[in-house]
Amino acid sequence: MISSREELQKAREKYLRYLKAEKKRILVCAGTGCVSGGSLEIFERLSELISKRGMDCQVELQEEPHENTIGMKKSGCHGFCEMGPLVRIEPEGYLYTKVKPEDCEEIVDKTIVAGEHIERLAYKQNGIVYKKQDEIPFYKRQTRLVLEHCGQIDSTSITEYIATGGYCALEKALFDMNSDDIINEISEANLRGRGGGGFPAGRKWAQVKRQNAKQKYVVCNGDEGDPGAFMDRSIMEGDPHRMLEGMIIAGIACGASEGYIYVRAEYPLAVSRLKRAIEQAKEYGLLGENILGSGFSFNIHINRGAGAFVCGEGSALTASIEGKRGMPRVKPPRTVEQGLFDMPTVLNNVETFANVPLIIKNGACWYKSIGTEKSPGTKAFALTGNIENTGLIEIPMGTTLREVIFDIGGGMRGGTDFKAVQIGGPSGGCLSEKDLDLPLDFDSLKKAGAMIGSGGLVVMDNNTCMVEVARFFMNFTQNESCGKCVPCREGTKRMLEVLERIVEGNGQDGDIELLLELADTISATALCGLGKAAAFPVVSTIKNFREEYEAHIYDKKCPTGNCQKLKTITIDASLCKGCSKCARSCPVGAITGKVKEPFVIDQSKCIKCGACIETCAFHAILEG
Amino acid sequence: MDNREYIMIDGIPVEINGEKNLLELIRKAGIKLPTFCYHSELSIYGACRMCMVENEWGGLDAACSTPPKAGMSIKTNTERLQKYRKMILELLLANHCRDCTTCNNNGKCKLQDLAMRYNISRIRFPNTSPEPDVDDSSLCITKDKSKCILCGDCVRVCSEVQNVGAIDFAYRGSKMTISTVFDKPIAQSNCVGCGQCALACPTGAIVVKDDTRKVWKEIYDKNTRVSVQIAPAVRVALGKELGLNDGENAIGKIVAALRRMGFDDIFDTSTGADLTVLEESAELLKRIKEGKNDMPLFTSCCPAWVNYCEKFHPELLPHVSTCRSPMQMFASIIKEEYSTSSKRLVHVAVMPCTAKKFEAAREEFKVNGVPNVDYVLTTQELIQMIKESGIVFSELEPEAIDMPFGTYTGAGVIFGVTGGVTEAVLRRVVSDKSPTSFRSLAYTGVRGMKGVKEASVMYGDRKLRIAVVSGLKNASDLIERIKAGEHYDLVEVMACPGGCINGGGQPFVQSEEREKRGKGLYSADKLCNIKSSEENPLMMTLYKGILKGRVHELLHVDYASTKEAK
């Protein structure tokens, strides 16, 4: 139990000394991706082998290690998930990718004992072998601040967090600042909400502070629902204390003594890491009653969400915590006035809270030196799609899409051409080639008809059908609509219906206009943010790729050949030898003909499975 | 200096006068802004999005959830807004049963009304209206999911006003429905049958159970003698739909209409109420005298309240008066009176209430398996039958109630409004029976539309503490207070806010019109030359005749012991 500032400082010195004494460290990635790839087995195997070799293996940073102790750590997510399971070796900074349990012996014998690098486990791009993690282009162009600890320290250890400067900001906030100072610092830094809206966090905190209420709450939104997005999960799993520290500071600033973390039940690892972190923080006197002897008390509870996308919306989220149906309500009153249990509530997402300790520790001036003037700091994105390097990245605000896709992402996979990028998940918009030099920040994206959202980036190549993309996202939103307001409930259903008939070849003249009219009504009249943004993917794809819609509707053709129902398979009579092989391979008997004469396909029977194409020895069967 | 605050609505200044939201102000300004989910007495839901208005910056706000601020300037009828409203209607209609002509709510439906008003002449989406999904398990209401537009009015009435919560939303998005717990039939849910959901429903998704066909059949049967009793609250609530003013006392016309329709004997439930006053006053005084631990005495006239008490507070049943409701007391008498008739006796009660349909079917009120009240018709059903008969109601000459039960008092008539039962009982128990004394009883606090009222009246040297509540949420809150130690001698509970005048079987009206109905009953009381039940000459005849030695058998019921028996 640490009960004063001095004790915390002493503890920090001690843990730092321990940390430095760990000459060699093996960090096995224990993020969700690598764990499902078998990283825990690798961790066990490595620990076992090290012990067998007669070396000491220290998991918890608790005692002063001696010279030959090997630190064995479960780190947070490195972000480079598709190359996992990942193992980082310190002090060299080697990164081993796609490690299997059978590689462990070699890692221990060669790298740990003999200090050699194992080339076959290293990351390679364009024939170049990258020994060290920092040299890999995927990492080199990033600015990892919020994610600085992810992959670098033991994600389950409060002592390592303290040793690397953790809870410094809390200390400063408790003893060197008053609540106004904290709010001023956050406002001055212009920290904007990372959950999508970009609302200034400082202004929100100040509004809650002004409220006169018996009880106030700090709520952390960890209900990351965008498909493919996992920024918040990585922070909760990889650096839970950073987020807790941010929440406690928000509590000091607003006069709240209770905090809630709303996290999806689909994130069991995040839940268990958070639980552990809360227990540790309490044990160390950094959470609970009379924190560090300052007189300030703060408690944090975890609430698990049942997986409704709409519960990421503030008022639906607080309703869900209260045990009610997760449904947004009308505003006013706003959450800052009447939020959780009708009390003034600060509601920010995980990444926003994780930025707070950085700002308090380093000051607003430092923070503003990163990113753009109106959107300072960094932003984490989940980069996916048809590009070489997918994963979790963190970049300064204002980085262009081109840099993200071609430098960090390593360009299009398999040398295809870039076509579009979907930003901000199902509520975001699809941007095209002409937007590639757009800086990624709140305002530029909004102007371009997209949004940062929680930070999903799906890169698509020229084989992607944009109408199908719009249909896919509309299907998602339609399924996730809570059903409360008419425009969202009924409107998204009708938009999906129109999109479905277009991709099935039954589009009608006027469908584009009908989609736009529906989109306009829904955006203008829907009750909550989910509804208001539901039509963005459709509107932006119509804006940027209208000709694709027209091809589907009027020519009954999918230019990319993706839409199954719009495919036609025909036999080129000049190439067909009449061997009948295709007719025999057809599962539905759609091909007929006389032997040695050209065969024909009955289009009304054909199911477009393509079996005939594969069997034809003369390349006489064409798809188009 | 003019301190008044204004906002501009379509270019016209409108004064803010304590309105909670823009919608009320806009309606005050004479603009019929459309809504489906707004009810001034319920929480703001904001889901239909029909009341969107344009602010001075071109942004849109839902009028129902925006508080008025001085200096605002809004428009209610722009090209965009009209386009959106039409689209919302089109979206609702695309998903809605469009067999209006055969709908129970034809002509009373808000969706139909607004579709007409906005001239929706085509629907560009495939018709995906679901198949009828009818739950007619309840004796009181009928629910059809396929006609639901998910405005949530019923859900909020049921939980916020009635504290029952028998229905709520289930599923999400376009699969959302309104459902009882585990989608059980309503009859197996917590529903108390008050019918407030049917009143609030803007479409035909929840309607009053229709028993008109059965009653017609009995009327046309030559071998039946059909008697009918009309509850107090009916007379002031059906006029508006039939060409009179709401609140206008139409008892004479109702009698005339019923006679033309073919009812054989026509009586007024107010007479039954006089019996209830005598029995309930006696019970109150007896309990006070005995001083047992069974105070306060809760009234038992309201069947939805009795249901609520049985389902949510069975421990309070010994506190509930053993008096049958006026309808049931009167029905026992009528069935006795005509028991020697050569024809099959059928007794119909015209009630403002859906829960009465349940009460009539209770085992306690059957004799040899035959219910004393064979059918309960609500005011809405009576209106329907009058229309079917082709009677021009407004032109009918008023007629008088039949003998031998043709007399009733003002005390019986005011049963139809919250506080009425209490006032009638007080007229019975106070020692000073002068007109001045009765007039002063009206000012003790028992009158008015407030949900919770309290009064104190001297009985001898003892001060009687009385509470009058309407709306089951108010009842539930009062019960909590009583359990916490607050003392009352008499508690009147009416399940519907405002009492029977706003019963679930009445035509829906806003709160101002509701007050008119209450005033209508008090005016009827003024016209009665007998004000106190014990002075009704018929009472003496009954107690000396039919009721002799049979008071308990014919006029009382013990809900507490039947509950135990179950």
Features:
heterodimer, A: 624 residues, alpha/beta, five-stranded mixed β-sheet, 20 strands, B: 566 residues, four-stranded parallel β-sheet, globular
Report on the structure:
The complex is a heterodimer of chains A (624) and B (566). Chain A has 624 residues and is α/β, with parallel strands linked by helices. Chain A contains 24 helices and 20 strands. Chain A is globular. Chain B has 566 residues and is of the alpha/beta class. In chain B, 36% of the residues lie in helices and 15% in strands. In chain B, helix 8 packs across helix 14. Classes of the chains: A alpha/beta (624), B alpha/beta (566). The interface between A and B is medium-sized, with 33 and 36 residues.
Summarize the structure.
Chain A is 39% helix and 15% strand. Chain A is an alpha/beta fold and 624 residues long.
